[in-house]
Amino acid sequence: GRLVIASHNPGKVREIAELLAPFGAQVVSAGELMLPEPEETGQTFVENAELKARAAALATGLPALADDSGLAVAALGGDPGIYSARWAGPARDFSYAMKRIEKGLEGQYNRDAHFVCALSLAWPDGHVESFEGFVHGKLVWPPRGNQGFGYDPMFLPNGHSETFGEMEPAAKHAISHRAAAFRLLVDSCFRL
Ligand code: ITT
């Protein structure tokens, strides 16, 4: 059946479509449907993902999959976290957002960070299921690579020599926070 990808972020929509591809789902994005972007008033990734998924399912009468994600930097007390998109300003300039993080890390030895991804699947009747995935790594400077999106060029996953910005999509999907959350979602669907 048809599934709405409840995101206006083209990088996310592409990755979610790639993760869904093997399942042959017919997908349409919130952008294509010109759905409004709900205000992200939640205090957690899951709350924001659920609010976005519910709004899209309600507006379309179709099941909707939303993603709320972000980068948590240890030495910054977990910032930018749920504010990861907002740190890039209204122009969504991630080279600026990455500089802002690097500035915050001046004089710090601890360069640990992790990505979080909450995926929520909502149905038009209001039912919603959520799953969370993580990937741990270190922040590098200067940023490397132009694959992926957002903070990928400065994120070096632990145990790897390429940043997410340097990895091919398949390599990122093998270890990413989004793929981890997606696997939990798929597992739970097959248990239903
Ligand atoms: P939607 O709400 O429309 O989905 P958004 O960009 O506003 O789009 P978020 O509020 O969840 O979504 O912001 C998450 C930000 O965290 C996102 O803009 C990226 O910059 C960053 N981010 C999330 N996943 C990432 C990934 O895999 N690689 C790099 N950056 C990522």
Automatic annotation (TrEMBL):
Its EC number is 3.6.1.66. Mg(2+) binds at E39, D68. Its cofactor is Mg(2+). It is an enzyme of class 3 (hydrolase). SUPFAM superfamilies: ITPase-like. One of its GO terms (cellular component) is cytosol. Keywords: Hydrolase, Magnesium, Metal-binding, Nucleotide metabolism, Nucleotide-binding. Substrate binds at S7, H8, N9, P10, G11, K12, S69, F149, G150, Y151, D152, K172, H177, R178. GO terms for biological process: nucleotide metabolic process; purine nucleoside triphosphate catabolic process. Binds 1 Mg(2+) ion per subunit. It holds the Pfam family Ham1p_like. One of its GO terms (molecular function) is ITP diphosphatase activity. The active site is at D68 (proton acceptor). It catalyses: ITP + H2O = IMP + diphosphate + H(+); dITP + H2O = dIMP + diphosphate + H(+); XTP + H2O = XMP + diphosphate + H(+). InterPro entries: dITP/XTP_pyrophosphatase, ITPase-like_fam, RdgB/HAM1. HAMAP family: Non_canon_purine_NTPase. Homodimer. PANTHER family: INOSINE TRIPHOSPHATE PYROPHOSPHATASE (PTHR11067:SF9), INOSINE TRIPHOSPHATE PYROPHOSPHATASE/HAM1 PROTEIN (PTHR11067). Belongs to the HAM1 NTPase family. Pyrophosphatase that catalyzes the hydrolysis of nucleoside triphosphates to their monophosphate derivatives, with a high preference for the non-canonical purine nucleotides XTP (xanthosine triphosphate), dITP (deoxyinosine triphosphate) and ITP. Seems to function as a house-cleaning enzyme that removes non-canonical purine nucleotides from the nucleotide pool, thus preventing their incorporation into DNA/RNA and avoiding chromosomal lesions. This is dITP/XTP pyrophosphatase.
